[in-house]
């Protein structure tokens, strides 16, 4: 049976794969308009929050928009409803549409903007281009009655714990006997107040990235039958997981820069792609960074990229790339629209696991300001 869901529950699922901790310092993320403290039936994923997008959301009875680009980025001095920015806020509030933003945290996230771009370009053996965050590995140990072992294993794995390389739901367990004495104020799941109880229990251990500790503990407690859950969290000596902006990998087969620029245009479904370099140059190792990646051309070169795919390339930065001998392909900032279907797919999968009664849409509104002759 499908379950009704509120905004907080949707965002809790979303932040399982795009934690706020991944965002760059000072970035404008999280809830920007409205409230999450309400029932949510319809969620729309969008790249931008422009007036045409808000009008689309109104027409689709959307309760929550999840956007990549923040509608409120610079500090507001006023909300003038006779101005475009003010009208956007006014319409969202009038129609009770909450707006939640995942910006650089979605760029960094596994399966986020940069992974989606790398996947679309069919890159292999990808790794982080610009490290920005180290996720420490922690260990969780807890005790549960034997008959609830499988439920706890599943809850932990679904919350993101127990991921090791290409494997998920990695858990160790061993059996033992637990004892406890419920006080007069207790409401024990097993046993009676004032009587010492002995229970066949299982000790479960797993690991998880520190960035998702709250959600792992929350889901574990939710699935656990006991009124008071005995658990402990420890730091480990395991190397941290490196997260960051951009990806670098290799094409299956080398191609000329000219052919690669056309390949980028097709795969990212854009109207044009500027490039810097000799169109007959052969490229195989590719760096990609969604949005404005001007400041990272030197990093792409240091990492050995033959070509760097990024948006909003500046004139003088293009000169710098030429002098570095780095080929560049610029498909524009709007190439990030790829996030809409990608986020929808990941969030839909998580909502289905929870049996949430919610509809997910991607915005069909065009927010690209540029036209091409």
TrEMBL record:
Keywords (A to Z) from UniProt: Metal-binding
Pfam families, A to Z: DUF34_NIF3
Record-level GO cellular component terms: cytoplasm
InterPro entries hit by this protein: DUF34/NIF3 (IPR002678), DUF34/NIF3_bac (IPR017221), DUF34/NIF3_sf (IPR036069), N-reg_PII/ATP_PRibTrfase_C (IPR015867)
Molecular function via GO: metal ion binding
Highest taxon above the source species: Bacteria
Binding of a divalent metal cation, residues: 68-69, 107, 333, 336
Gene3D superfamilies: 3.30.70.120, NIF3 (NGG1p interacting factor 3)-like
Family as reported in the entry's similarity comment: Belongs to the GTP cyclohydrolase I type 2/NIF3 family.
NCBIfam families assigned: YbgI_SA1388 (TIGR00486)
Name of this chain's protein: GTP cyclohydrolase 1 type 2 homolog
């Amino acid at each position: 049976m499908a379950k009704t869901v509120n905004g907080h529950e949707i965002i809790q699922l979303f932040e399982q794969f795009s934690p706020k901790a991944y965002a760059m310092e000072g970035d404008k993320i999280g809830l920007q308009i409205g409230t999450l403290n309400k029932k949510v039936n319809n969620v729309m994923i969008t790249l931008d929050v422009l007036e045409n997008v808000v009008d689309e959301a109104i027409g689709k009875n959307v309760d929550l928009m999840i956007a990549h680009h923040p509608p409120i980025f610079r500090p507001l001095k006023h909300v003038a409803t006779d101005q475009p920015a003010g009208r956007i806020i006014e319409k969202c509030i009038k129609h009770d549409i909450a707006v939640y933003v995942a910006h650089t945290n979605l760029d960094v996230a596994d399966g986020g903007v940069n992974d989606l771009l790398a996947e679309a370009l069919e890159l292999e053996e990808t790794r982080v281009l610009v490290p920005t965050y180290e996720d420490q590995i922690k260990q969780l140990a807890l005790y549960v009655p034997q008959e609830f072992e499988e439920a706890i294993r599943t809850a932990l794995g679904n919350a993101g714990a127990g991921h090791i390389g290409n494997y998920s739901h990695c858990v160790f367990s061993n059996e033992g006997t637990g004892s406890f004495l419920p006080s007069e104020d207790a409401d024990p799941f097993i046993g009676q107040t004032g009587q010492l109880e002995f229970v066949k229990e299982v000790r479960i251990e797993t690991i998880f990235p520190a960035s998702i500790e709250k959600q792992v503990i929350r889901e574990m407690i939710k699935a656990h039958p006991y009124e008071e859950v005995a658990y402990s969290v420890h730091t480990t000596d395991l190397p941290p997981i490196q997260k960051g902006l951009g990806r670098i990998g290799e094409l299956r087969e080398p191609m000329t820069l000219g052919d690669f620029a056309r390949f980028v245009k097709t795969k990212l479904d854009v109207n044009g792609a500027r490039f810097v370099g000799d169109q007959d140059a052969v490229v195989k190792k590719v760096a990609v960074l969604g949005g404005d990646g001007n400041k990272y051309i030197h990093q792409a070169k240091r990492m050995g990229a033959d070509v760097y795919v990024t948006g909003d390339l500046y004139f003088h930065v293009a000169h710098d790339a030429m002098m570095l001998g780095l080929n560049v392909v610029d498909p524009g900032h709007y190439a990030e629209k790829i996030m809409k279907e990608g986020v929808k797919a990941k969030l839909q999968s998580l909502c289905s696991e929870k049996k949430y009664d919610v509809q997910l849409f991607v915005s069909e509104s065009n927010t690209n300001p540029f036209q091409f002759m």
